[in-house]
Design brief:
- The protein is built from nine helices and seven strands, in the order H-H-H-H-H-H-H-E-E-H-H-E-E-E-E-E.
- By secondary structure, it is an alpha+beta fold.
Length: 226
């Protein structure tokens, strides 16, 4: 009850808090110094820090965000403390990067391994679910690599960085379209080649269910010679 009675709608408090207007100058100085210090250490940590983001790197980013943000805003956080945190976090990242270059076991633990998602034009649904990757996300990545149907894909790996790496077949097979809304190119009209609607496994019309995933839905495949 006392807190409710003491409350007042104060625009000065809402926008400026308990600090005077001159505190903006301190914030500006803090932002400049912390930003400059972080840039210097990022440059020292190497290009890898900015390129391939793994789960470990993501944790580093979260830690850096807290250290940098607190030092920029809060007056009771000494700048030297923020500098120390930034330096230690980026130093740890660099040390781990050097260790994983020589220790493959540590590299597997920290950065994981590529996961095979598509093999010979067929989606490995168990791996897709294991990596919590949706079909729409998979198809989006394939389209970005110039793939319009799964029969073009020899293998596709989900890398530790979260990117999809695709290797195309020299001779494409018919396969499931990855175009939006299931749009198909070069579809045969006389005797259509059928593929599983779920994983793209090719099938004969006589088959009742997919031999790879057990699904019962078929659709005409996009041909290989589009």
């Amino acid at each position: 009850m006392d807190n409710q009675q003491d409350y007042s709608f104060d625009l000065y408090r809402i926008f400026l808090g308990e600090h005077p207007v001159t505190y903006f100058f301190e914030i500006a100085l803090r932002v400049f110094l912390v930003y400059a210090f972080t840039l210097i250490f990022l440059r020292w940590s190497g290009k890898r820090t900015m390129a391939d983001i793994t789960f470990f790197d993501f944790a580093i980013i979260i830690a850096l965000g807290s250290a940098v943000g607190d030092g920029m805003i809060f007056h009771d956080v000494p700048l030297l403390h923020s500098f120390a945190v930034v330096g230690l976090v980026l130093g740890l990242e660099r040390a781990v990067a050097l260790l994983t270059e020589t220790n493959k076991t540590l590299e597997k633990i920290i950065e994981s391994e590529p996961t095979l998602i598509v093999e010979n034009g067929v989606i490995l649904l168990d791996k897709l679910h294991e990596e919590t990757l949706s079909r729409d996300e998979l198809f989006e990545s394939l389209r970005a690599d110039g793939i319009y149907q799964l029969g073009q894909v020899a293998v596709a790996y989900l890398e530790p960085s979260g990117k999809l790496s695709t290797i195309k077949r020299t001779e494409a097979l018919p396969g499931l379209s990855v175009l939006p809304d299931g749009k198909r190119l070069c579809e045969s009209t006389d005797e259509p080649i059928l593929c599983c609607k779920k994983c793209s496994c090719l099938a004969n019309q006589q088959e009742k269910q997919c031999v790879r995933c057990g699904d019962h839905q078929w659709q005409p495949a996009t041909l290989a010679d589009c």
